[in-house]
Amino acid sequence: MRQSHMFIPTLKENPADADIKSHQLLVRAGYIRQIASGIYSFLPIGQRVLRKVENIVREEMEKIGAHEMAMPALEPSELWKETGRWSTFGSELMRLNDRHNREFALGATHEEVITSLVRHEVKSYKQLPLTVFQIQNKFRDEARPRFGLLRGREFLMKDAYSFNESYESLDETYEKMFQAYSNVFSRLGLNFRAVIADSGAMGGKDTHEFMVLSEVGEDVIAYSDTSRYAANIEMAPVTAVYEKSAEAPIDMEKVETPGCKTMQEVADFFGHQLEEGLKAILFKVDEQFVLAVTRGDHEVNDVKLKNLYDAGVVELASAEDTKRLMGAGFGSLGPVGVPEDVDVVADAAVEALVNVTCGANEDGYHYKNATPEKDFHVSRYADLRFIQEGDPSPDGEGVIQFARGIEVGHVFKLGEFYSQRMNATFLNDQGKAETMIMGSYGIGVSRTLAAVVEQYNDDRGITWPANVAPFQVHLLSMNPKKEEQKELADQLYDQLLESGIEVLYDDRKERAGVKFADSDLFGIPVRVTVGKQAGEGIVEVKERATGEQKELSASEIADYIKNWYKA
Q1: What pTM does this model have?
Q2: Same domain, 278 and 212
Q3: Distances from the Cα of 28 to the Cαs of 33, 151, 164, 228, 515, in angstroms?
Q4: For the Aminoacyl-transfer RNA synthetases class-II family profile domain, which residue ranges apply (predicted)?
């Protein structure tokens, strides 16, 4: 491809709205352009990279027997209402009405669509197991699109769905898919972890996220410092054992605490550590109000709270509901004297406490010397808090450390969540109807591209891994006005193309500094420069990632490039 004929608009400075490396570099190098908040066009050079990531995903899917298909992006609401997700998925689902006022959603995911299709077409156990996938744009109305391709409102995704006759068969498919995902991210050269995760609005129970380690990641990974254990922080169980305090309980006392609303302000007022106070937060769990209580130095994990109640939706109670039910605002809540229609649950650490402070459910007042079961009742004690660094690893090996990660893939064991609600059944070998067992598996293709850039860059630009770079070679003619340089560069271009090598040929009439800067920005793994030694048939070869360079005869270049990519 001649660069003079290709649409690659580059920028010298970082865009004002780009906060992370991948966003900055992909825009500056002419890979993408923003059309609206969270919505991007992939320009020609960006499209080449996207297709290479896509093809790696496609190859690994086909290796495990998944078959590619295409489903509509426009989904009727009736299907989502069958599973209940029309009301539970939330505001991220982009909804619209057609001219007949029929409700639709732009596809955020396709469990309902594929289940509807399969329930009509698959009737016998002989047709199972079945795994299909598609690579298609998805739509989610993100409240705060940010970080370029990492959190957009339209994005390219590979989504796959499996249908099995048993949970044992699902386990086998899940393991194949898990390995295929590991292969994809390994082939892309990514430093990643597969972590235990929450299924969220997808349904199902067993699930793993594939996280690319990066400081700009929005997810926190809890991992053992001595074993392979890793989990999303919201899913890591706390296994710490709490010994009951030997301190004798004393009488509880209400104290005026003007201006004290945070745990730290309360601790400072009473002169104790954070762990000597109770934190109480009112949640609405489906239609039930729940007061969740933790130690002052701990944080309520709403995913664990949701799982405790097997709930569909968990959200913080509104200020109005909190005042109406509890008689006080957020900073003065506590477990003493809670109305009967509010369930009180507490983290396991609370049960061991004696003589602690807590909100008095009256603005500007707190209790001191409150003790569980003496001064207030807890309906259930459970693991309700986020794990912390230094806690024991749940697998019993080492202690927990934190790292940040970018989620690029997610695999779910859905079980019967969709098939039961949508009556997707098959006849077993005895001729009896059984419910299909499902799995769902997604890779954010465009997000993965951005994650690659987050791990492969330097202060001059992108440093693409070899198998996803837009071209294999960047051929530069330093001065096309000089006949010997132009002639040799043209010859090399033709030879490389004939050898099946992908070449971007910078034949522009630009200064050498501009060409070198653009080349570094693009990040193509190998650069071949035709310059002053063109008359002798000598060119310079430079590796983008290492900076290593050498001079070679032009006649050696095609073989050198082939061997370099084989190594």
Answers
A1: 0.85
A2: no
A3: 9, 19, 46, 38, 14
A4: 33-465
| 53 occurs within a structural domain | yes
Tell me the angle at which helices 445-455 and 44-63 cross, rounded to the nearest 10 degrees.
110
Per-residue model confidence (pLDDT) at position 411: 96
**CATH code for the domain of 499:** 3.40.50.800
Contact 444, 211 (CB under 8 A): no
Q: Model confidence over 134-159: pLDDT tens digits?
A: 999 999 999 889 899 999 999 999 99
CB neighbours of 367 closer than 8 A, spacing ≥ 6? 252, 253, 254, 255, 334, 336, 357, 358, 359, 360, 375
By C-alpha distance, which of 519, 538, 521, 536 is closest to 476?
519
Distance CA 491, CA 494 (A): 5
Q: Which two tokens stand for residue 371?
A: 């003790």
Would you say residue 418 lies in a domain?
Answer: yes
Q: Enumerate residues 6+ apart whose C-beta is below 8 A from 363.
A: 328, 329, 331, 332
Contact 548, 542 (CB under 8 A): yes
How many domains are contained in the chain? 3
Q: What is the DSSP string of 537-555?
A: TEEEEEETTT--EEEEEGG
Percent of the chain exceeding pLDDT 70 equals 99
| CA pair distance 192, 182, nearest whole angstrom | 9
Q: How confident is the model over 219-254, as pLDDT tens digits?
A: 999 999 999 899 999 999 999 999 999 999 999 999
Statement to judge: residues 138 and 218 lie in one domain: yes
Residues 32 and 83 in one domain: yes
CATH number at residue 311: 3.90.960.10
The mean pLDDT of 325-343, rounded to a whole number, is 95
Instruction: Give 567's pLDDT tier (boundaries 50, 70, 90).
Output: confident
Tokens 């292969």 identify what position?
A: 183
Parent domain of 100 = 17-236+401-453
- 242 in a structural domain: no
pLDDT at residue number 193 = 92
pLDDT (average), residues 93-113: 97
CATH at residue 434: 3.30.930.10
